[in-house]
Design a protein that fits this description.
Elements lengths: L1 H8 L18 H12 L5 E10 L2 E11 L2 E8 L2 E2 L4 E2 L3 E7 L5 E11 L2 E4 L2
Antiparallel strand pairs: 1-2, 2-3, 3-6, 4-5, 6-7, 7-8
Amino acid sequence: MFFAIIKNMSTIEQPPKIENSPEHIPNEEKILSVFKKLLNGKEYKEVAGQKKVDGKGIYMWAIEFPDGGGKSQYLYTRKGKYPETEALETGIHVVYLDNTGEVVGGTDAAKLVGEKWEITE
């Protein structure tokens, strides 16, 4: 009986191999369109020195906008390891700042799934 179980196990089909397709890297226009969707008409400005580019395109980009009594930022990061940061996935995060500019919180705002953005906030 034990032999029959092993024999039957050998005929079990293997799961299909998952192909690793190249990761989609959004261009500046697409990232900006997601920023604007998240901002919902609010004014914003780029954070000086916080737009980083490598040979593949933008890997980090921060914009700032007024939020209540303080300011907040949307921070785009592309999946990967970079001198300033490391990101496990491509996404946009919201960072909440107090009136002195100190970070007081944050959360995910959007993530890239395949070639489409999912708003998460």
